[in-house]
Amino acid sequence: MPEVKHPVDEIPAPARLAPLALQHVLVMYAGAIAVPLILGRALSFTPEQVAYLVSADLFACGIVSIIQSLGVTPLFGIRLPMMMGVSFTAVGPMVTIAATHPGIEGARIIFGSAIGAGIIAMLLAPLMARILRFFPPIVTGTIILIIGITLMRIGINWVFGLPFGPTAPRVVDPQYSAWLKSVTDMAGAAGSTVPPAPPGLKLAPTMPNPLYADSARVAISAFVLIVILATTRLATGFIRNIAVLIGIVAGAILTALLGMMHFNYVANARWFDIVTPFYFGTPIFSVVPIATLTLVIIVLMIESIGLFLALEDMTGKKITQRSLTAGLRTDGLGAVIGGIFNTFPYSSFSQNVGLVGVTGVSSRFVCVAAGVIMLLFGLVPKIGALVQALPDAVLGGAGVVMFGMVAAAGVRVLSGVDFKTNRFNLYIVAVSVGIGLIPTVAPDFHIWMPHALYPMIDSGILLGSISAVILNVIFNPTKATVGEVLRPA
Domain residues of the chain, as ranges? Predict the structure, then answer.
């Protein structure tokens, strides 16, 4: 009798595989290219160099995603439907490096730091995996719930506008800018008695921005959301599985008809680009930046544990300590590959986890195919630029569904926890969710704390995870000892 494959290990037919994979790519694309754009500007790169960073990012993203989902030897790959990307948790330390060492030198320091930190992370992966025994359902469900709630901020910002940049809620009143310019010109005139403006004087944004929460943006997001929900309710089988893709495509068509999609980048992008290792020169290895990025990657590895556990619940595929070690080791390998290919540390990308819950498709080969598409986008910048033309508002309608689905998965796990006879579990969830939301609700809560702590406390997922684990040990103590954790399974 032939062995029955787990749905995670099934390979969909090509006609189903391609659209399912493209769906994953569209969901993560905006987040995938955001970091190279930010770092490219921070490094004072030319537009051509920034474009190369984006291509290298997509190329490396595809390689690491394939390794994580497909698995390469027993040492690498969680072998679950997981995409890899550059987390914003790593942006702060890298921007600091770019500020002190702009240009090619700063890039080489960042790449060297990524390689060094990635090697250390790979060595730490077996130790990190041994804490899995401290993640019973009460802890797992709480962490997954926090991940979903934290991600919802991204989806809501896609709907109404990003908090910074052209769509920020408030802008500087043009009258104030004109007044300051006139006074500055007067102060600079020969023989003027007008005192010059103090160095670094900036006007505060006080005027409501007409581009923020624009009714057209909200309507487009609502339209995409309605299409996704209608497809899910009325369609069956494969069509229901690609409901998010159908919603995004419908939103793209609508925005194109309304003239809201701009294709300037498509016209200027090249058809083909080769991504070569060490394009910007030999990496520079410096102790302090490596140590800083190592802390960041450890934080990301703890976040990855929560994502892996969420996928375990969604797919029904049991995670072992060995597979968890392989998944975490791939986070370290992602940083090494990123440094080699002139880009940044890669870790498990939380934005795609919700899509698994929405579609109900648990095949890891969907993410393998998505990795191939990302790799091709890195080699064909013109196609990547076409996807980049997609307005954030279109992704907003999809984001509300996907990120909410992650939170719902956490609620589902918690539904099996005993809250009736063990009231301590209520305190574990209540306090941990509250602590996990601190960076989301009060992003400046750490302004008086040492900057060295920022990479570790900027993540609400990390704070909530630590809280849930510690409170569970206090209220629901087990017989596990430190020695048992350190011993191999």
Answer: 14-171+206-486
